[in-house]
Amino acid sequence: MTAAATRAPEGAVSPFLTIARQVLATEADALRRLADSLDERFDAAVEQLAGVTGRVIVSGMGKSGHVARKIAATLASTGTPAFFVHPAEASHGDLGMITAQDAVLCLSNSGETPELTDVVTYARRFAIPLIAIVGRAGKSLQAAADITLVLPTAPEACPMGLAPTTSTTMMMALGDALAVALLERRGFSADDYRVFHPGGKLGRRLVKVGDLMHPGGEMPLIGADRPMSEALLVMTAKTFGCVGVVDAGGSLIGIVTDGDLRRHMDPDLLHRRVVDIMTREPKTIRPGALAAEALGRMNSGNITCLFVTEAGRPVGIVRMHDCLRAGVA
Length: 329
Fold this sequence. Notes:
single chain, alpha/beta, Rossmann fold, CBS-domain, five-stranded parallel sheet, four-stranded mixed sheet, 16 helices, 13 strands, 17% strand, elongated
């Protein structure tokens, strides 16, 4: 059949679009059934995995194996140490990767995957907790497992009912549900997430001001009663294009920028006091704030630097260029 023969008439829905919508509707309906089917066994699985002092070993064969790899990756990135063990490789030495401190999570739509036999037997022999996700109840894997999560009966989206589609979608979603429930159970925070995602766009979004700021002696600071001649020397030496003004107690009370210099330019400028020239109540930010927030404040205020303060005292200074160099945008 040619492309022209399958192209829908103008205004009509193409057969391929119809198929796509049927597939998604079938899988969406299965996910609703899965959500409704969850019970105390899911809670038990979360508690079992949360109590593991080692890692969660995820295993599966074929399409279930591909899903198992993704579940292991999601668990590991959200605070639950985990990795995938291929069941066939496990039979040839990789069983040594599984320790008595671990838990095993096995995936099998049929519940009778022969390649999982050695993994299951090993887990039972050494009293390693075994959790199963299966598509059919009453099978061998369920009989061997401590906890079994059974997928609800739902047709595969494949018109022949053969290709794993709906079943793998449910397995993937159930793995996500376990990972997120464990994330909440462990109190996993955005800070923890950033530790595991230092690279890429996600890691850049979670960079904090404290990671980029220039602290301590790098800050351009001067006392409020000092002459502007000294302030100009500090500004020149520190190269931030500004100087923070502090009172006798060390609190930030103002800022002198290049713009302030231009606005007050006269023959007596260098002999005047800093407090007479400074802009009061400068914009500041916390060290724990996201760098993206700092960048947003600088953009909205049409400024290029922000002093970083804690309890009113300057602890650092961050520049727009620092944020951009770190990939924050």
